[in-house]
Design brief:
Elements (H helix, E strand, L loop, with lengths): L11 H15 L4 H8 L3 H8 L7 H11 L4 H10 L7 H8 L4 E6 L10 H14 L4 H17 L7 E7 H5 L4 H16 L4 E6 L13 E5 L5 E6 L4 E4 L2 H17 L3 H13 L3
Parallel strand pairs: 1-2, 2-3
Antiparallel strand pairs: 1-4, 4-5, 5-6
Helix pairs in contact: 1-5, 2-3, 4-5, 7-8, 10-12
């Protein structure tokens, strides 16, 4: 048997090559046979499989057609060209690291600054399985989150106000062990002297002021910045005429949400399986 170079998916190009070889092997094709169906050379296929040559969008589309893989390889190439972090987010994090107050609102998942490493890993791995990001980008996301969390542990930590939609604590992520540890983390967070944790229950209905995640920072000079993001884009705003109404809506949301005592009680009951 011809010696085959061991493929180690430690970067996006090699991950693409691993998946390409697996798909080719599953059909029992040689590199030359796949190349003939794609209109390229066997040497080209070999270079892509071993990570010595980066796949282009055209190559990925041709591979999908030849292998009958839908748009799998096209999506992988697209993910390789996109950063692991949304536009605007790295700039926001620079402000976050020196803020004196943070006000966070989240829907659907536990706010990132409160996520356990296991919870964060499950979300990142899920994105990899969907083809949204590469394994390398998943590692970058998890490591970047750990750095953000560590930056808030300092001699004079900021006040951290967190309001979560009820869906954040009810949505199961990673199985009972991961979720229970995450709920424990929330309870511990609420006990800190510089934190306020509130749950916005479903019952507030239309009084929920935000439909998307929102982060509001107060900086040492008392100026306020706001960061909001959709599924594909982040936006940082420092204009007070825009930010101050958002801050008002956050205060309104806090008023409609459960108190910290009631919020923690709900989390404890959910943790015990009695809610």
């Amino acid at each position: 048997m011809v010696n085959r170079k061991r493929l180690d998916p430690d970067d996006p190009d090699r991950d693409f090559g691993v998946q390409l070889r697996l798909a080719r092997d599953a059909r029992g094709w040689t590199q030359d046979e796949l190349a003939s169906r794609m209109g390229c050379s066997g040497t080209h296929i070999s270079a892509v499989e071993t990570g010595r040559r980066s796949p282009t969008p055209r190559f990925a589309q041709s591979a999908d057609r030849a292998l009958g893989t839908g748009d799998k390889f096209s999506r992988m190439v697209q993910a390789m060209k996109e950063p692991a972090l949304l536009d605007g987010f790295p700039e926001y994090v620079k402000y976050e690291a020196r803020a004196v107050e943070l006000r966070l609102y989240e829907v659907g998942i536990i706010p990132r600054l409160l996520q356990t490493p296991e919870y964060a890993r499950v979300l990142a791995d899920s994105a990899v399985r969907r083809g949204s990001i590469t394994p390398g980008q998943a590692e970058e996301r998890v490591a970047f989150l750990a750095k953000r969390q560590a930056a808030l542990v300092r001699p004079n930590p900021p006040m951290l106000f967190v309001t979560m939609d009820e869906s954040c604590i009810r949505r199961p992520v990673g199985g009972s062990a991961v979720m229970n540890a995450q709920l424990d983390r929330l309870i511990e967070f609420a006990e800190l002297p510089n934190t306020v944790l509130q749950v916005a229950p479903y019952e507030i209905g239309e009084r929920r002021t935000f439909d998307l995640p929102v982060n509001i920072l107060t900086l040492p000079d008392r100026s306020v910045v706001c960061y909001a993001e959709s599924q594909t884009q982040g936006h940082l705003d420092r204009e007070s005429s825009f930010v101050l109404p958002i801050l008002t809506e956050y205060h309104q949301l806090q008023g409609a949400s459960l108190s910290q005592t009631a919020s923690v009680a709900n989390i404890c009951e959910l943790r015990k399986g009695t809610l």
